[in-house]
Amino acid sequence: MTIEVERADSKRLDGLDGTWDGQVDGSPMGTLFHRWDALRVIEDHSDATLHPLVGFKGQEPVGVFPVFELRKGPVTTAFSPPPGMGVPSLGPVLVNYRKLKQRRFEKRNNRFVEASFDWIEAHLDPNYFHVVSPKGYDDVRPFQWNDFDVSPRYTYDIDLSAGEEALIRSMTRDARKSIRNTPEESYTIERRGDAGLEYVLGRINARYDDGDGGLVLDEGYVADLRDVLGPDTLLVYVAEVDDRPVSGRLTLHGGDRVTLWQGSPKPDVDVDVPINDVLNWRSMVDGIAAGRSTCNFVGANTRHLCRYKSKYNPTAVQYFEIERGTRAMNVVSDLYRRFG
User: Fold this and answer.
1) What are 304-315's pLDDT values in tens digits?
2) Strand 294-297 versus strand 315-325 pairing type
3) Are 186 and 273 spatial neighbours (Cβ–Cβ below 8 Å)?
4) Which residue ranges does the record assign to the BioF2-like acetyltransferase domain (predicted)?
5) Which of 23, 168, 250, 324 has its CA 20 to 30 A from that of 238?
6) Burial zone of 38 (CB within 10 Å; 0-12 exposed, 13-18 middle, 19+ buried)
């Protein structure tokens, strides 16, 4: 039986007692950014049009693939995720596949991806197409067989399942010293609401303004994400020393994982506290308390940042950057790598 791909018009999938989010949450490949309301927020705050593609084998859903269309004059591009929105990955999510033998899995993966390509070519015909795959989507051969360039990328996962003591023992001496020897009374870390979000984003965006890289995130965008995901899913932390905020972080809780999404900017004042070490530790401890088994330390592709992150004894996990387009679109690719 062939796989048919169509554009979903609502979070409830046609003809089925199921929802888009049910497919996303039921797959190891699904992320918080794949959820329907999060996708709509991303669309509302970008210049892109969302096409939430879903594949069916008969009445059985086999995958979802959110694609964002960007048009600039005569040029059409397709992204998953769109650039500049701080979304680490998106791409296809396969569902109902874990009991399949390898041959049937490969056939389903290939047919779903190719059916998605057929829909995209028929309706969008993009000059350039860029995908960053979610962790767990490891078989990217259907993209390679369709003339996409595929590059391995890396992120870091930290195992939380053994508990606090085993976790801290696994870290480097420097990390253990920073966490254990810093008096708790020398700093405070609290979850905050809108005011905390304004502060954290202000510090993140100031880092960009100072020429230290990164991207600018609109406060309204992140606030809307927090509204649809919930304050216990998108957590805002603010760290203070001497009653003055010096750093902060945005952390995501979903499924079995904590994601250190944005933040931990270098303090803009001199402090004697290794504030970002204790801030990271607080995020991990809260993850353990919430029953999460993994902490994702987003990004392991920048050498000087890897030197810092590796002291927490993470595991490097592979995902993929996938693109296809003409040479004239190289500038789009370069901009994506810089700001995506």
Assistant:
1) 889 999 999 999
2) unpaired
3) yes
4) 169-309
5) 168
6) buried
